[in-house]
Amino acid sequence: MPSVYIETYGCQMNVADSELIRGHLARSGYTAVADPAAADVILLNTCAIREHAEERIFRRVGALAHHRAGKPHLQIGVAGCMAQHLKDRLLERLDFVVGPDGYRRLPEMLGGDPFADVRLDRDETYADLAPQRAAGVRAWITVMRGCDKFCTFCIVPYVRGRERSVPLDAVLAQVCDAAAAGHREVVFLGQTVNAYRSGDDDFGALLRRAAAIPGVARVRFTSPHPSDMTDSAIEALRSCPAVCPHVHLPVQSGSDAVLARMERGYSVAEYTDLAARVRAAVPGAALSSDFIVGFPGESEADFADSVELMRRMRYDFAFLFKYSRRDHTKAAKWDETVSEVEKQRRLQVLIDLQESIAAEINAGWVGREVEVLVEGPARRPEGWLAGKTREFKTAVFPAGDAQAGDLVRVRITDATSHTLMGTPLSVVRDVSASFAADPASPSESPL
Ligand code: 5AD
Ligand code: SF4
Question: Ligand 1: does its nearest atom lie under 6 Å from the Cβ of 445?
């Protein structure tokens, strides 16, 4: 049987796509291997969101080339967003290049001549292809693909194509499969996940239907777009015990002028109103965000507005990026006005501020009780377990008799900006049984 080694870069959608590719190739007789030296096919599933991500993958392609020695049949190739973006440059060095809409044809193409398939297909959702998921408490489920927003900095619509949703029945079938396979948490994925639509069913309907499936202790989703956040989705967050109280709401900038040039489709006031509505509906909900510093034309005053917004919003965590110019995008035609040194300085200001805010927020959890879904051993100390609270905070505690997949009530005794530490109080092992017996527990917020 031929063997395939898959390495994944970039976002969670790529993790899910790798699982899809693995499942699809497995049905065609490929075995997945964990060592590139043992593989007949080496596939890198790639990311193009920032230049840095692409450089890393080029270096990796170079480093993998030595596996060709004494193995003339070995095929090394690239899948995903970078394949779509840099087909010609990649094909010079590789045996195949396949974009995000070309995975279906991989089994028939592999094993033959070098090939490239970077056609975008506005209907491809892979709804009928079962992924081969990694074991673990969490299952990633792609519910929509592509993006129609065309923010002026972003390459995603060009490499992943237009927005399309996986039909509701297919998503729910995947949720059932994931629960049956022992995954306790499902995470719905999409570039603008809350733009989900299947017939008359919107994203709120999807959340409500998924949350009602027995065995699913927790439902999460990433990343929603502020402009697509409907009352229906907020209502699902409020009313479904299994839907976790955490919303990642990427803002990108705290300046109306920059947001307008980014073509994000909302103002700072609209964004903060939305966040206030989420917080009012779901008291104690965690909020997180993405910011870009150094977008073309971002003045000192614009940046100060981002700092101010971060201070006001008090995010639980944030992903912070230096602007990276991307081919095809509108902003690629604009002069870069912020030097690399200044971008770095602005980035560091936001990192430091977010660290101090997160430390303060987490210190406020000391003394409280949380519910932790255990993922496995903590990196340290020895003998401790790690998992996430419903708010998506990492929590660690001495294992006792708890194990991966358990929901554990933990009293928090200490905290850093990244981690809560605590003492276990009680363990709920059979999530599905307790759900059937009492829908109000155990995943209802303890807070
Ligand atoms: N430069 C820097 N950051 C970017 N992102 C997307 N495109 C770029 C770019 N060209 C960031 C945004 C987005 C996250 C996934 O990546 O913050 O929300
Ligand atoms: Fe990129 Fe904007 Fe689409 Fe997000 S919403 S994937 S930032 S174009």
Answer: no
338 alpha-carbon distance from chain centroid: 29
Q: Report the C-alpha gap between 308 and 142 in whole angstroms.
A: 34
Distance CA 199, CA 206 (A): 11
In angstroms, how far is CA 300 from the centroid of its own chain?
Answer: 31
Q: Which ligand is nearest to the CA of 320?
A: 1
Is the C-beta atom of 326 inside 6 A of ligand 1? yes
3-state secondary structure of 305: helix
pTM above 0.90, yes or no: yes
Per-residue CA distances from 42 to 8, 30, 60, 195 (Å): 11, 12, 11, 34
Ligand 1 site-directed mutation target among 153, 289, 306, most atoms within 8 Å of CB:
153
What is the sign of the dihedral through the CA atoms of 100, 56, 32 and 87?
A: positive
Bridge partners of residue 387, in order along the sequence: 374, 395
Residues near 360 by Cβ (< 8 Å), separated by ≥ 6?
Answer: none
Cross-strand partners of 219: 186, 243
Per-residue pLDDT tens over the stretch 337-374: 999 999 999 999 999 999 999 999 999 999 999 999 99
Query: How buried is residue 107: exposed, middle or buried, by Cβ count under 10 Å (0-12/13-18/19+)?
Result: middle
Q: Whose CA is closest to 362, among 320, 403, 329, 391?
A: 391
31's enclosing H/E stretch is strand 31-32
How crowded is residue 260: how many other Cβ atoms within 10 Å of its Cβ? 14
Condensed to tens digits (0 to 9), the pLDDT of residues 186-244 reads 999 999 999 999 999 999 999 999 999 999 999 999 999 999 999 999 999 999 999 99
The rounded Å distance from CA 250 to ligand 2 centre is 10
| Residues 369-428 pLDDT 10s | 999 999 999 998 999 999 999 999 999 999 999 999 999 999 999 999 999 999 999 998
